[in-house]
Amino acid sequence: QDLSHFSRLYVQYHNCAWSPFGTPANDDENLAFESYWYLGLTQTYRANVAFSLYGILKGSINTGGCSQKTYINSFFTDYGAQHFVEALQMNGYLYTDDVDNAN
């Protein structure tokens, strides 16, 4: 769906899981599955995030937040939790203190 059709979007975080990082078809770090046995490589794993997206269509009565009526779809990251965290930070939902407090 085109997200511009929504007046509000909500993200519901579910959990993090230690799972494969990237996809072998387009990720140089993991290479192709067929080469693992030959080169003795193992696939890279990182924390990935599972989350659901909810939205209220423009012109709809605000039913509020995450509900069956506002559910769009559920997703998980392939390239680590950092992209999910960065998206939250860019939209003002996370604050990080960059001051070094190691005294």
Give an account of the 3D structure.
This protein has helices at residues 36-39, 82-90; strands spanning 6-20, 45-57, 71-76. It contains two helices and three strands. The mean pLDDT is 77. The radius of gyration is 18 Å and the shape is elongated. With 103 residues, the chain is mainly beta. A three-stranded antiparallel beta sheet has the order 1-2-3, with no helix packed on it.
Give the topology, please.
Elements: E1 6-20, H1 36-39, E2 45-57, E3 71-76, H2 82-90
Antiparallel strand pairs: 1-2, 2-3
Keywords:
elongated; 103 residues; single chain; 3 strands; mainly beta; 3-stranded antiparallel β-sheet
Based on secondary structure, the structural category is mainly beta
Largest sheet: 3 strands, antiparallel
Mean pLDDT: 77
Give me the number of helical elements: 2
Low-confidence stretches: none
Indicate the overall shape: elongated
Percentage of residues in DSSP E strands: 25-35%
Helix content: 10-25%
N-to-C SSE series?
EHEEH
Kindly report how far apart the N and C termini lie.
50 Å
What is the CA-based Rg, rounded? 18 Å
Number of strands: 3
Largest sheet: spatial strand order: 1-2-3
Please give a quick description of this structure.
Helix content is 13%, strand content 33%. It has helices at residues 36-39, 82-90, and strands at residues 6-20, 45-57, 71-76.
